Amino acid sequence: MLSPGLTAGARKPAPQAPQAGLINDYPTVARADYVFGCMVANGQTRQALEKCSCSIDTIATILPYERYEEAETIMSVSQVAGQQAELFRNTGIFRDIVADLHRAQAEAEVTCFY
């Protein structure tokens, strides 16, 4: 029998996102999409699954889903070439929304990957 928090073959507990203030307003599909993308970047392993799941849970404690969705949309639109996308790249409020997501992702990386 495994100790609580340990997976088969694990030497230490899987990373856990902070529970205080956990916001559970992220749809399952948004969480799954984040985890799939994270695993592409970090390896298709069980360990990557645990870390990536922890990461989106941590982000959810920091940003409400509406703010996360805004940032994802701004980042997506700003990648499009052309003058119309320039508005999203160079407007302060849009940069602030994306910066909030980047700060949440940095916190998640420290919490879950180290």
Major sheet: size, sense and barrel closure? none
Structural class: mainly alpha
Q: Which outline best applies?
A: globular
Estimated radius of gyration: 16 Å
Number of strands: 0
Quick structural overview:
With 114 residues, this protein is mainly alpha-helical.
Key traits:
single chain, 114 residues, mainly alpha, 5 helices
Report on this structure.
With 114 residues, this protein is mainly alpha-helical. 67% of the residues lie in helices and 0% in strands. The chain has 5 helices and no strands. The radius of gyration is 16 Å and the shape is globular.
Topology:
Layout: H1 28-42, H2 46-62, H3 65-78, H4 83-90, H5 92-113
Helix pairs in contact: 1-2, 2-5, 3-4, 3-5
